[in-house]
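Handout, section 3.2

Students often ask what a structure token actually looks like in practice. Rather than define it abstractly, here is a full record for Sarcoplasmic calcium-binding protein-like. The first block is the sequence as you would receive it.
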Amino acid sequence: MARMIFSKRLIQGMFSRSFTHKAVSLKMTPHDYPPITGSEHWKRKLRTLFRARDADKDGFLTKKDFEMCAHRVSSYMELNESMAREVLRKRQYTWEKLSCGTSDPDNLKLSEDEFLHQLHRYTRDAALGLACNDFDSIDIDGDGFISPKEHKAFFYGNGIPTDKSGMSSKCLIQTAMA
């Protein structure tokens, strides 16, 4: 439900701030931007995302990586069984979309270049849907906002270290990626 509300507001270019209840108008909606071209900047960002999602650090994305991330988040947030299943379902949905068109998605291993290729072939609408699902998998309580604890759980689930305050520094991330 939250994904539909979030998606609808994002497409309309409007968000509602809970502390002021005033609408914020975005200058451009996702549909106003040019199609994804695979620029070097885009590729660099997605390569970073790939390395963060590779939970077992074997150089490939697998269904197991997405499941490990969901289990880490569930453990960190101390979720009950039904909420943990929902987080796992959302992560598995993301994996299904990434592995669509393959004969055996459960045993598929996506390399970094294959991951870029899979994301590059998506249209803006499909990429927006995938991003909304990803947002919903981070927004555990479904309120449409990512709380500091949910943010910390996201970093923890992807194996990105944080200090005691929940902040992640460039040095911590570089150490984790090395």
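Discussion prompt for tutorial groups: The first helix runs from residue 2 to 12. How would you have guessed this from the sequence alone?
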